Amino acid sequence: METTLEVVLPGVVEPDGLVLRRRELPAPERGQALVRVEASGVSFAEQQMRRGKYYDQPPFPFTPGYDLVGTVARVGGDVDPAMVGKRYAALTKTGGWAGHVVLDAADLVPVPDGVDPAEAETLVVNGITAWRMLHRIARVRAGQTVLVHGANGGVGSTLVQLARLAGARVIGTASPRHHDAVRALGATPVDYRDPDLPGRVRELAPGGVDAVFDHVGGPGIVDSYRLLAPRGTLVGYGTAATRDVQGSSRLPVLKLLARLMWWNALPNGRTATFYNIWAGKRNAARFRTRLAEDLGAVFALLASGELRAQVAARVPLAEAGEALALAESGTVTGKVVLIP
C-alpha cells in the first residue's frame, strides 16, 4: 500500500503540537488529479488556524496548508492525461501540508517551465492577493504614492515590487531590522513601531497617499484611512493586530468590515474595502478563469525576472512545527516554504 505524509493540526496548540502521520495515498476520481506536492506555504492563515482564530476554518483535527505547487502524478476520468508530469499551483485553504493531495483538475494553474517550485509557491496566495489589491481594487497608476504595511512580509514584499513595476512610489512599514531589505525592493522604509508613524508618512507624502494596503487592522486602521489623499483607496486584508488577543475569531473581522463599510459610504471621494481571496467562489467558472488570469500574470513576471520571489526559508515538511514558529517569529523577510 502506497502512503503519503501529512501534517495534522489536532486542536489549539503551540507550533510544536503539530502531529505527523502517514495515510494511504488517495486516488483521483472523475475530474480530479493527484498532485505530488513540491512546496506548500506557511502563511498568516495557518498561524491563526493553530490558535483556532481563522474566520472560517474547519473543525479540528485537519491538515492545514493554504496553497501549494506540485506535479500531477495521476489523473481521474475526464481529465487530460497530458497533465501528468506537469507542474501546477493551487489554492487549497486547507490540506496543502502533505506529500500528496487530490484536487479538482480545473482548479490547477500551470507553472511556467524552469520556475523553481518554492519560488512559485511564494507567489500563489501572496501573488494573487497583491495583484488583485493593486490592479483590480486600488487600480494604482504610475506616479502615485502607496503605503504598504508589513513591506517585508510575503504579501507586502510582493506588493512593493508590483507597485514599483506599475511606476508607483512606495512607502513601506517594517521593523528596523528589515529596512535594508525593504529598500532593496525599491520602497522607502518606515519603522512600524514609531509612535508618530502617521507623521512620518505625512512627511514623505504631504498630500496623502493614493492607496494604503493594511493587513493589521485594529486601532491602526484609523490612521491608515486618515493618511489617504482625496480619492485614495484603503484596502484591508487582515487582522494581524488581533493575533494574540483572546476571544472570538469572527468579531474582529466583523468590526473591521463594518468600519470599512461606514467609511466607504462617506461622501469624501475616498474608498475603503476588505479583500477576500475567495470572493466570487460561488461562480466557480468565473472564479477559476480569473484565478488563472491573475496568477498567470504574476508567474509571467517571475519567469521573466521582473518579479523576485521572497523565499524566507525552505523547511522539510516533517519539521512543520519549526517552520510555523519561524514564520511567527517576525524575524524573516518573505515566506517560509515547506518542502515534502
How many runs of DSSP E, i.e. beta strands?
A: 15
Seen as an oligomer or otherwise, the chain set is single chain
Q: What class, by secondary structure content? A: alpha/beta
The low-confidence runs, each spanning 5 or more residues with pLDDT under 50, are none
Mean pLDDT over the full residue set: 95
Order of helices and strands: EEEHEEEEHHEHEHEHEHEHEHEHE
Radius of gyration: 20 Å
Spatial gap, N to C terminus: 19 Å
Q: What is the third-level CATH name, the topology of the largest domain? A: Quinone Oxidoreductase, Chain A, domain 1
Give the overall shape, derived from the CA principal axes: globular
**What would CATH call the class of the largest domain?**
Alpha Beta
What's the CATH H-level homologous superfamily of the largest domain? Answer: Medium-chain alcohol dehydrogenases, catalytic domain
Written overview of the protein:
The protein is of the alpha/beta class and 340 residues long. It has helices at 44-49, 117-121, 125-137, 154-165, 179-185, 197-204, 220-226, 251-265, 284-304, 320-328, and strands at 3-8, 19-24, 32-42, 67-75, 87-91, 100-104, 109-110, 145-148, 169-174, 188-191, 209-214, 228-236, 271-274, 311-316, 335-339. The protein folds into 2 domains: 3-122 and 309-339, Quinone Oxidoreductase, Chain A, domain 1 (Alpha-Beta Complex); 125-274, Rossmann fold (3-Layer(aba) Sandwich), CATH 3.40.50.720. The protein has 10 helices and 15 strands. The strands form 3 sheets. Strands 3, 4, 5, 6, 7, 14 and 15 form a 7-stranded mixed β-sheet that branches. The protein has a 6-stranded parallel β-sheet with strand order 10-9-8-11-12-13, sandwiched between helices. The protein has a two-stranded antiparallel ribbon with strand order 1-2. Helix 3 packs across helix 4 and helix 3 crosses helix 9. The chain starts with a strand and ends with a strand. InterPro entries: ADH-like_N, ER, GroES-like_sf, NAD(P)-bd_dom_sf, Zn-ADH-like_protein. This is NADPH:quinone reductase. Residues 11-338 form the Enoyl reductase (ER) domain.
